[in-house]
Design brief:
CATH architecture of the largest domain: 3-Layer(aba) Sandwich
Strand order of the largest sheet: 1-2-3
CATH topology of the largest domain: Rossmann fold
Shape: elongated
Number of domains: 4
Largest sheet: 3 strands, parallel
CATH class of the largest domain: Alpha Beta
Number of strands: 12
Radius of gyration: 31 Å
Distance between the termini: 73 Å
Strand content: 5-15%
Helix content: 40-55%
CATH superfamily of the largest domain: HUPs
Number of helices: 20
Length: about 450
């Protein structure tokens, strides 16, 4: 098996493209195959070195390696010209100056559903000859057969008048030369496939198998875009998602394990993935579901591994104690500093929390708590919890009326890791200083 991922470097790698890359990678790795990376960079205005780097960076973060490439499609121009000239010499293609208006006029004369047929000329764009009889059938692993009757197909333009070849010709030549056996790509390419099959036929080559993936929609049923929370791989990375969770989630967009399992390691995905099980219907990308799945991965990590990830993500060191008490409450790496940053950077300023939890009555309870905490030795989670629970019970208070003022005094806000654990991580002196700052 030889598969390829062939992005156009016209921007960041979008989530749909990442899923296409993943499916090709899973097929190659699960079948002892080869994954070829080809950069379709013939659009010189939009294809920039920076965009190529963005794609390579995204694949590296997703940990999707490739066996051959990256191959620049532009670097294959001589080969494209060689085969273009071959088709012209064999009469399988011809030059034509026909314009869009000429095509309309042809259809007005011969019928709107009649494919355009031109006459060979000495100059102009190059068109591929479509047989008048018969049909081209796209055999799709996911969608079954789609039949395109030749009588309805225009002779497609495969090169401009200046000789530069167009997508449908270049991609067929590149896949043929790379001996690609399976083309897995988005369904937006389905209409291109019969034209590419005709190129294969004209060149006397065997076509690969095709699988056209359903498009991705947001939860609202509309085409996936930035308004749905994230549009590119880099945005997911910057939002603190884990690459292994993203791989797991992307794999499930349109495909499912035979036993409907949701949490699948990459090794399990490689073993179980079958392109024939991909559904035809559009798949929904829901960033909240990804967040839930990512949270499962976060909580399943060892504290040491999560600390390593968070230190790389935040650029900070010495986070282990704070990570240990925050792990159960964060869904992404980006959640960590908003939750636990007060342990290092001091309290934040949340006026609503102050107003609710640092009024006169709560300050009185905070003063009692301060006294109970100051007497503790050792100052650890067990002793802290016991002392504060005695305070709750002795005055018949609600736990939140004792614990929340402490939390707001320490963190500046009403959301933090566990209050006992936060006190222990800060230590006696720092904790008492923060309580005193509020009491004074």
């Amino acid at each position: 098996m030889r598969v390829r991922f062939a992005p156009s470097p016209t921007g960041a790698l979008h989530i749909g493209g990442a899923r296409t890359a993943l499916y090709n990678w899973l097929m190659a790795r699960g079948n002892g195959g080869t994954l070829v990376l080809r950069i379709e960079d013939t659009d010189r205005e939009r294809s920039t070195p920076e965009n190529v780097e963005q794609i390579l960076d995204a694949l590296q973060w997703l940990e999707l390696d490739y066996d051959e490439g990256p191959i620049s499609q532009l670097s294959r121009t001589d080969r494209h010209q060689e085969l273009l000239n071959q088709l012209l010499a064999e009469g399988k293609a011809y030059r034509s100056t026909a314009t869009g208006d000429d095509v309309k006029a042809y259809k007005a004369q011969h019928g709107a559903d009649k494919g355009f047929r031109g006459e060979a000329q000495d100059e102009g764009a190059v068109r591929l000859r479509v047989p008048d009889e018969g049909a081209t059938t796209v055999h799709d692993v996911i969608r079954g057969d789609t039949v395109f009757q030749h009588v309805h197909m225009d002779d497609p333009v495969i090169a401009r008048a200046d000789g530069s070849v167009l997508y449908n010709f270049a991609v067929a030549v590149d896949d043929m030369d790379a001996e690609i056996t399976h083309v897995v790509r988005g369904e937006d390419h389905l209409s291109n496939t019969p034209k590419q099959l005709l190129v294969y036929e004209a060149l006397g080559a065997t076509a690969p198998e095709f699988a056209h993936l359903p498009l991705l929609h947001g939860p609202d049923g509309k085409k996936l875009s930035k308004r749905h929370g994230a549009a590119s791989v880099q945005e997911l990375r910057d939002a603190g998602f884990l690459p292994e969770a993203v791989r797991n989630y992307l794999a499930l967009l349109g495909w499912g394990a035979a036993d409907d399992q949701t949490i699948l390691s990459t090794g399990e995905l490689v073993q179980q993935f079958d392109i024939a099980r991909v559904q035809k219907n559009p798949a929904q990308f829901d960033v909240q579901k990804l967040r839930w799945l990512n949270g499962r991965y976060v909580r399943d990590m060892s504290v040491d591994e999560l600390t390593e990830r968070l230190e790389a993500f935040t650029g900070r060191t010495g986070l282990r104690e704070a990570v240990a008490i925050s792990q159960e409450k964060i869904g992404t790496l980006a959640d960590f500093l908003p939750l636990a940053g007060f342990l290092f950077d001091g309290p934040v300023d949340d006026p609503k929390a102050r107003e609710k939890w640092l009024d006169e009555d709560h300050l009185a309870l905070l003063a009692e708590a301060r006294g109970a905490l100051a007497a503790l030795d050792p100052f650890d989670v067990e002793q802290i919890e016991a002392a504060l629970r005695r305070l709750v019970e002795s005055g018949d208070h609600k736990p939140k009326d004792v614990f929340q003022p402490i939390r707001v005094a320490l963190a500046g806000t009403a959301v933090s890791p566990g209050v006992f654990e936060s006190l222990a991580v800060l230590g006696r002196e720092a904790s008492l200083r923060r309580l005193d700052a509020v009491l004074n």
